[in-house]
Design goal:
Structural class: mainly alpha
Distance between the termini: 85 Å
Shape: elongated
């Protein structure tokens, strides 16, 4: 008799919520702080002024990311709760119509009508709201909004990302600040792209090219603006 081995599959889609916030925060921290540093450096500011500007950008950016993510994801959470409340009310008012609605969803997915009605009935007997939330509204434990998690993750990863260009400024030799910040920031972005791809189970090439290209563009534009403004004032 064969032994049956049961194993729990770990799907990478479970990481979507925190992974998106983490990659966004770290990428924004590196790009915005490096760009800010280069813009100020291009305007011939002193090293002390550049460090002060970068540190202020780190704190302001982290707070902005935390607040922005929290507000944004809270709006999603409010919408989910409103939809669930509406669905709960409909289940109380007309459970038969809700059963038919759920069965039709399964029929459209390929089940024959008899099996679809049986599945709908059994799922609703166990957890009617959960079945409708998942299959009608598309709300599951994977996609559910988590505002606090998103806000804290974004703030922490932004701070970590922003600290890297600041470190490059701190250790830069005289006359080599801009080159060191540019090269190190692009390397940090490439590493971030590879890390995000690995965590998400995706290929490496496209994420690395994507983050380095847009990061380089942002730094170039900001440095150009700093150079022009620096000469003007």
């Amino acid at each position: 008799m064969r032994n049956l081995h049961h194993h729990r599959e770990q799907h990478l889609v479970d990481r979507i919520g925190w992974l998106r916030a983490a990659v966004l925060g770290a990428n924004d921290g590196i790009v915005s702080t490096a760009s800010l540093i280069l813009g100020v450096a291009a305007a011939s500011a002193s090293k002390g002024d550049i460090l002060l500007t970068g540190a202020a950008g780190l704190v302001a950016g982290a707070m902005s990311m935390a607040a922005g993510e929290y507000v944004s994801v809270s709006s999603q959470s409010d919408t989910e709760h409103a939809d669930l409340a509406r669905e709960r009310k409909e289940l109380r008012a007309d459970p038969q119509a809700e059963h038919e609605e759920l069965a039709q969803i399964y029929i459209q997915r390929g089940l024959d009508p008899e099996l679809a009605h049986r599945v709908a009935r059994e799922l609703m007997e166990k957890d009617a709201l959960g079945a409708h939330a998942r299959d009608e509204l598309g709300i599951s434990h994977v996609s559910v909004a988590r505002p606090i998690q998103a806000g804290l993750t974004s703030a922490a990863t932004f701070s970590a990302g922003a600290a890297l260009p600041l470190l490059a400024v701190a250790v830069s030799p005289p006359g080599g600040l801009i080159i060191l910040v540019v090269v190190s920031s692009l390397l940090f972005l490439a590493a971030l792209g590879a890390l995000g791809a690995r965590a998400g189970g995706a290929g490496y090439v496209r994420p690395i090219i994507r983050v380095t290209f847009w990061g380089a563009l942002a730094m170039a534009v900001t440095a150009g603006v700093g150079l022009v403004v620096g000469k003007a004032v």
